[in-house]
Write a structure and sequence with these properties.
Layout (H helix, E strand, L loop, with lengths): L31 H9 L11 H21 L22
């Protein structure tokens, strides 16, 4: 591998032995655990195609676990919703 860096906008050049990163961007979700899993996808950029499945399966397992954990968290309990009979109207006119 050389220290030469291509100019911006120049597609990467590789040899048959070097995988070429796809350069697919990942937009952060704001949920730290999900973002960490999505960042793991970058590991596939440095692997030959037959190594991608391991990374994809790991990310898939992690994302499924995150979704499952949402189901196991207690739901927020909303306060009571007043019924129309509970609303009081005060008429302060004299």
């Amino acid at each position: 591998m050389s220290d030469w860096t291509p100019e911006a906008g120049t597609p990467p050049v590789s040899t048959p032995d070097e995988p070429v990163p796809l350069g697919v961007g990942r937009t952060p979700t704001g949920h730290g655990a999900v973002d960490a899993r999505l960042e793991r996808l970058a590991d596939a950029d440095h692997l030959p195609a037959d190594g991608h499945i391991e990374v994809y399966e790991d990310v898939h397992r992690g994302l499924r676990a995150e979704l499952t954990s949402l189901d196991s968290r207690p739901a927020a309990v909303p306060g009571p919703v007043p019924t129309p009979s509970q609303h009081t109207h005060h008429d302060n006119r004299s």
